[in-house]
Specification:
There is one protein chain. The protein is of the alpha/beta class and 514 residues long. The chain has three domains: 2-185, Rossmann fold, CATH 3.40.50.880; 194-387, HUPs (Rossmann fold, 3-Layer(aba) Sandwich), CATH 3.40.50; 402-501, GMP Synthetase, Chain A, domain 3 (2-Layer Sandwich). Helix content is 32%, strand content 24%. It is built from 14 helices and 18 strands. The protein has helices at 12-21, 35-40, 79-87, 174-185, 194-209, 222-235, 253-264, 275-282, 288-311, 327-330, 370-379, 384-387, 407-426, 479-492, and strands at residues 2-6, 26-30, 45-48, 74-77, 91-107, 120-133, 139-143, 151-154, 159-162, 213-217, 239-245, 268-273, 318-322, 360-362, 435-449, 452-465, 473-474, 496-501. A nine-stranded mixed β-sheet has the order 2-1-3-4-9-8-7-5-6, sandwiched between helices. A five-stranded parallel β-sheet has the order 12-11-10-13-14, sandwiched between helices. The longest helix has 24 residues, at 288-311. The protein is globular. The chain starts with a strand and ends in a 13-residue tail after the last strand. The relative contact order is 0.09. Bound molecules: xanthosine-5'-monophosphate (XMP). Xanthosine-5'-monophosphate binds at residues 348, 391, 393-395, 435, 469, 506, 510-512. Catalyzes the synthesis of GMP from XMP. This is GMP synthase [glutamine-hydrolyzing]. Keywords: ATP-binding, Glutamine amidotransferase, GMP biosynthesis, Ligase, Nucleotide-binding, Purine biosynthesis. Pathway: Purine metabolism; GMP biosynthesis; GMP from XMP (L-Gln route): step 1/1. It catalyses: XMP + L-glutamine + ATP + H2O = GMP + L-glutamate + AMP + diphosphate + 2 H(+).
């Protein structure tokens, strides 16, 4: 495996993903992880991420110095190579002009890091400081117009450094450089595959769970669905899934989950139709935060009730609760230079964990990135409509109906949303965007239909692209696709006479409307 030390770069997770794309397991640790702890993991290589700090800066993150004595190859990226220079006797200086954007790398000396790569490469820079003197034993092997030390190495110790960012897509051959580091320099084998992950995880889950029973809140989203399929493979009928219909689902959603998991996979599935309960609680509520709170609390109650019902009269209680927690949710992190972006973001899991229920946790996906989860799902035989599914908020359509939630308004939104989805799929856009959905606005406007004046509701269409939901941009969808969506909604959905396209990005808007 490869250990990546996080010095606060926005790209740390991207580095980890690139390494895994080489079929080598990678793990992110905080920058100050003790060398002993790192050595205990027996990594074949270590990567220092970039970071926003300056090596001399107050509070700048540094690694445990003993890390340089472990005899393990190290690759420093950007701030990471500056750290290496700084700690091993070189010099780093604040540069008068920041090098940001595309650049051209000229290799001057042959190195295994550039095995099978051309001598001139397009690269992507983003740094202020730069190395001005190399530590003893180091030499430059590549340069850019702006920096004589764009690539450095200390071949005996197998220390390598890149001033630019090989992990981003703007460095087209960057992945090959990282691959050379892991294969040529660290000697890693390609043994991280989703097939081997599935086998190993099934074995671990069986060990962990023994003869006990596991309960899982299945939402139909990618994470809980893949967790369910994986656990079902591991422990079969010792797994029970609870699917709560909160009345705020999209059209056909409950049916799809029952068909896929009940009929096809034969998972023990308890379907709870709690829609009346939820809608009653939401009656008259228009405040977005209150909606969310009510739905969250109600979910916990419904889930508890379902668990109690399932355990009644049985000896075997559920000892374990399974969750579809992913790797980005569990990466340990430390704030760097007060940069909140470097702190772990709070994650909202499927409806939230019942806090006062005493379960042990089973989290079979906690080592995986989202792409890997999708691949595991596909390998387990889940259909594309589930594994490639767009994110859907826990509070469901409630946060896409502005104003009061009524049965009638739910009907309108469901029908409009189904048209958006159908047209996105028909035009091949659905799987190319982050999210595409309809929202129902709390306004009515005047229109004409035939010879009659109408006074009806407005649908907003929201289609965004995003990497992780933290920032997003609206999709420049072709006009003809938008036109089709609009005319179908107005013609087919009773009660709607106007459709708008939301052209705001996040920030300052959010993806959802509430
Ligand atoms: P916003 O609206 O904050 O959404 O830009 C960012 C992403 O998160 C999803 N989202 C949620 N997901 N529970 C969830 O599981 C929630 O309460 C929730 N609220 C928003 C949203 O769909 C988008 O992908």
């Amino acid at each position: 495996r490869i250990v990546i030390l996080d010095f606060g770069s926005q790209y740390t997770q991207v580095i980890a993903r690139r390494i895994r794309e080489c079929q080598v397991f990678s793990q992110i640790l905080p920058h100050n992880a003790p060398a002993k702890k790192i050595a205990a993991l027996k990594p074949q290589g270590i990567i220092f991420s970039g970071g926003p700090a300056s090596v001399y800066g107050k509070g700048a993150p540094h690694p445990d110095k003993a890390i340089f004595e472990l005899g393990i190859p190290i690759l420093g990226i950007c701030y990471g190579v500056q750290l290496m220079a700084h700690h091993l006797g070189g010099k780093v200086e604040h540069s008068t002009h920041r090098e940001y954007g595309p650049g051209m790398l000229h290799l001057t000396t042959k190195s295994p890091l550039f095995h099978n790569l051309p001598e001139v490469l397009d690269i992507w820079n983003s740094h202020g400081d730069k190395i001005t003197k190399l530590p003893k034993g180091f030499r430059a092997i590549g340069k850019t117009d702006n920096s004589p030390y764009a690539v450095v190495e200390q071949p005996k110790k197998r220390f390598y450094g890149l001033q630019f960012h090989p992990e981003v897509v703007h460095t087209p051959r960057g992945k090959d450089i990282l691959a050379n580091f892991v294969y040529q320099i660290c000697g890693c084998k390609m043994d991280w595959t989703m097939g081997s992950f599935i086998d190993q995880t099934c074995e671990e889950v069986r060990q962990q769970v023994g003869d006990d029973h596991v309960i899982l809140g299945l939402s139909g989203g990618v994470d809980s669905s893949v967790a369910a399929a994986l656990l079902h493979k591991a422990i079969g009928d010792q797994l029970t899934c609870v699917f709560v219909n909160n009345g705020l689902l999209r059209s056909n959603e409950a049916e799809t989950v029952q068909r896929v998991f009940g009929d096809n996979f034969h998972v023990k599935l308890k379907y709870v139709d709690a829609s009346t309960r939820f809608l009653k609680k939401l009656k008259g509520v228009t405040d977005p935060e209150r909606k969310r709170k009510i739905i969250g609390n109600e979910f916990v109650r419904v889930f508890e009730d379902a668990t109690k019902q399932l355990t009644r009269g049985k000896k075997s209680k559920f000892k374990f609760l399974a969750q579809g927690t992913l790797y980005p949710d569990v990466i340990e992190s430390v704030a760097i230079g007060g940069n909140p972006a470097s702190l772990i973001k709070s994650h909202h899991n499927v409806g939230g964990l019942p806090k006062n229920m005493k379960f042990k946790l089973v989290e079979p996906l906690r080592q995986l990135f989202k792409d890997e989860v999708r691949e595991v799902g596909a390998q387990l035989g889940l259909p594309k409509e589930i594994v490639q599914r767009q994110p859907f908020p826990g509070p469901g359509l409630a946060v896409r109906i502005l104003g009061e939630i009524t049965k009638e308004r739910l009907r309108i939104l469901r029908e409009a949303d189904a048209i958006v989805v159908a047209e996105m799929k028909a035009s091949d856009w659905y799987y190319r965007v982050w999210q595409s959905f309809a929202a129902l606005l709390p306004v009515r406007s005047v229109g004409v239909m035939g010879d009659e004046r109408t006074y009806a509701q407005t649908i907003a269409v929201r289609i965004v692209e995003s990497q992780d939901g933290m920032t997003a941009d609206w999709v420049r969808l072709p006009y003809d696709v938008l036109a089709k969506i609009s005319s179908r909604i107005i013609n087919e959905v009773k009660g709607v006479n106007r459709v708008c396209y939301d052209i705001s990005s996040k920030p300052p808007a959010t993806i959802e409307w509430e």
